[in-house]
Here is the input.
Amino acid sequence: MADGRRGAARSETARLAILRATAAQFAERGYDQLSMEGIAAAAGVGKQTIYRWWPSKGALVAECLIEDLLLPDHFTPADTGDVHADFTAWLEVVFDFIADPSNASLMRSLVAAATSNVEVGLRLQEKIGSASVLISRLETGIAAGQVRADAPLPEIVEAFVGSLTLRALSGAPVDPGTAARMVDAVLGPVSVPAVVPGARGAAGARGEPATSAVAGGVRVLRDLVYAEPTGFRPLALDLHLPPTAATGAHRGDPAPLVLFVHGGGWRSGSRREFGPDVRDAFARIAAAGFAVASVDYRLSGEAVFPAQVDDVAAALAWLRVRADAFGIDGARVVAWGESAGATIASLVALRADASVRGVVHWYGPTNLIEHARLLGRTNDPDCAEARWLGATAGERPDLAAGASPALVLTAGAAARAGAPTGDAYGGVAVPPPFLVVNGTSDDAVPHAQAVEFADALAAAGGEVELVLVDGARHRFEGDVDREALFEHAVGFARRAVSAVRE
Here is the structure.
């Protein structure tokens, strides 16, 4: 602790009163307006009492940081075995904290205090990202082959923390995917895998995509660019390969493919994110014998519907063309999406040319017209579905229907019955098997959406398993056995790719 005390031992009651007064006045006034006189008056002690124990107001602020009175906790990357994903998640947590208006002024005051007091700066860095902890995490990444062996670790830590500091000072909004792009830019590629025809890294000039090893023999090919839409950023996917799949001359049996589509309201999210809090999800799906392609797509701030569906369909086509090179079976594919990603995955699977064996649909909107009505935002131009469609559901119900898996099925049934549907329907004749899961307490996507979708699938002649999770909120938050739901989905995928198709 920042002590600097002289004379009598501290009274713990007085110490805490002083620290709490310091934290309250710092948060209210900032560092420049913080005074020993004001702190003493608020704490009910003499100014000389404070000076006996702390040499300066900077030392006081530093001790407030140590005692968790100014920031809630240390922001520390997890260790899931995937250093890129861990650093991305860490940055996103800090970005979200800084973006909260109630925290923004506090962070700016702390940065300002750090410029005047070295100890405050050191303590602030420990809270945002301890250099020793970050370096230790990077060292485990080097040992796992996920960070290059000659990486300058102190400078990497400075780059991350410096960027967070700049964000705190500027107050500039953080665009979706910024954290993942920053991690890719700073950590860079790891090593060159066996050459895969047509594959290259997301940054173009990097050459071949990066590869890394994960526990259990699972390998990850990162930053595989599958499309470069004119006028947009390159679109990439990460491919997690099971121990049984190999590129090159010594292949095992081709692995079935899980095509994973992340959520985020169509306007945020990253291929590095699984969604629900399930540890090592991608690696565990791969360890179960699947190749897992986690796909990025254009977000609604970049392009509107149907660009996202087209992107994911393009990723699937790209993987099928290269199936032999990757050691995967392009004929045995399960689409798996969560939240907005479930909507996209389902729309792709219902296309006539998709030929997927099954779909895991986790709590995604299925009828955007009804979804907007249930949430009271039929004519709200700022809601997630309006930003995705480029219009509200009230303005363009036809567009909303085309982006709604349940209504696409209804249109298909009408078309096959000879009824006019407005636009030509080119969907699959009979939908593939679906696992549809939704929480009964989900206020982001009400579970009525899942029920309607299951009914539409059954009416179209498809096999559907509907699971309503009692009390679960969005992303299965709450008192929920997420592990059981995850294992159930993996089991469904295994059965889907094992079934004999007529």
About this structure: The chain is about 45% helix and 10% strand. The first strand starts at residue 210 and ends at 213. The chain has three domains: 12-66, 83-182, 201-498. The mean pLDDT is 82.
